[in-house]
Amino acid sequence: MSHFETASRRVLDRVERLTCLLMALLMAVLVVGVNFQVAARFWLSYSTGEGQQIVQLLAWGQELVQYAFLWMVFLGVGVGVRRGLHLRIDLLEGVLSPAARRRLGVLIDATCMILAAVFVVAGAVIAWRTRLHVSPALGLSIGLVYLVFPLSGLSLLAFLLEAIVWGRPANETETQEASDAPGGAD
């Protein structure tokens, strides 16, 4: 393994860990936000008062949950690709030779890189064009919300390029399964 590959994988490992940490925080926002929504609807349904105030109170929580979910899903795409967790149809893999399987994997990853590049370019354009638009409940710039598209595309490009050039890194599950298998690594 070359020094460049080692350094690059180390950087990508950090990107993956940071992304997973951010996704965990976003999941916490989702859990708290949804529970707040449920509790507020339950408690406020018994109170008398202004219906408009209740709607405004609940609107920011719903918007926050939607944006957190959007970010969590799109950030997770790159991590899923790096770990090889996405669904795929492996009908051809069983009948192809190992070399042909590798070529097919590179073709699939290269095709996905085109989609990732579209995410980067189109996402950056959309984020820039909507930077002055403001979300109704939170008052956030919609451009910040849409910034997840180019960020997701960049991480996806990096992880796909890693897979094409050096292959996917072995994740903990694969390592554990290999060591648990009869005659596996000790």
Offer a few descriptive terms.
single chain; 186 residues; mainly alpha; elongated
SSE blueprint:
Layout: H1 3-46, H2 51-83, H3 98-129, H4 142-146, H5 148-166, H6 172-180
Helix pairs in contact: 1-2, 1-5, 2-5, 3-5
| Sheet with the most strands, sense and barrel status | none
**Gap from first CA to last CA:** 22 Å
Can you tell me the overall shape?
elongated
What percent of the residues sit in helical stretches (DSSP H or I)?
A: over 70%
Please tell me the total number of domains: 1
The number of strands is 0
Rg calc: 22 Å
**What structural class do the secondary elements suggest?**
mainly alpha
**Mean model confidence by pLDDT:** 86
The H-and-E topology, N to C, reads as HHHHHH
Low-confidence stretches: none
β-sheet strand percentage: under 5%
What is the count of helical runs?
Answer: 6
Structural overview:
- The radius of gyration is 22 Å and the shape is elongated.
- The two termini are 22 Å apart.
- The chain contains six helices and no strands.
- The model has no long low-confidence stretch (mean pLDDT 86).
- It is 76% helix and 0% strand.
- The protein has 186 residues and is mostly helical.
- It has one domain (3-87, 96-169).
